Amino acid sequence: MLGSIVLVILAIDLFKAEPLVVRAEGDRITVEFFPSGEPEKVNPVALSFSGKVYEDLVLADSPEKSKLAEDEMFLAKAIAINRSGTLEDVLSLWSPGERPGIRKVAEDPKVFEANQKFYGSIEKSFLKAKILYGTYTIYIVKHSAGSGEILKDYPVKKVEGKYFLTNALREDPVFQYLTTKYIKKLREVK
């Protein structure tokens, strides 16, 4: 099974396949890929995974927040803390084992201020998708800021009943490819 997944990813990367169809049926999301530039759309490679597609679920301090599930509330909290929290507040969002590395980067005042400025510019955040990947959950969030929109992935791991942000998947080729291509498809759908 792993060999076939690696083969599919290598084939997609080598042939620069592009996603054309994204569909959700229950808790299964399927992304179909076709060769780039090929006018005839037949025989797709399909990547299917467990998760959920959302219709712009608002992640904010608003009346909608009471309707959020526990994991969705964690994302709303993470966005709020990144907007106006202290360094210690931001670090508390991260998986305990990753905090020393995050601290090294975030304690630089320029980096910390740039992060707060980015999150401070966000007017509204919407949950677009939840992707279950091993013991991780990857959330795709659309941030509306000024005249633009930004789609961002948030990999999360539940540890001892609590949710934490994680960078553990940053080097994972499936995570990289899936989030890059899925976000690209979401941008096209608008």
Short description:
The chain is of the alpha+beta class and 190 residues long.
Helix content: 25-40%
Shape: globular
Secondary-structure element order, N to C: HEEEHHHHEEEEH
Rg result: 18 Å
* Total number of domains: 1
In total, the number of strands is 7
Taking all residues together, what is the mean pLDDT?
82
Structural class, by secondary structure, is alpha+beta
Report the total helices.
6
Distance between the termini: 34 Å
Can you put this structure into words, describing what you see?
With 190 residues, the chain is α+β, with helices and mostly antiparallel strands. The protein has one domain: Nuclear Transport Factor 2, Chain: A (Roll). The chain has six helices and seven strands, in the order αβββααααββββα. It has helices at residues 2-15, 70-84, 87-92, 99-106, 109-120, 173-189, and strands at residues 18-25, 28-34, 45-58, 124-133, 136-145, 148-159, 162-165. Strands 1-2-3-4-5-6-7 form a seven-stranded antiparallel beta sheet. A hairpin with a 2-residue loop joins β6 and β7. α2 crosses α5 (109-120). The protein is globular.
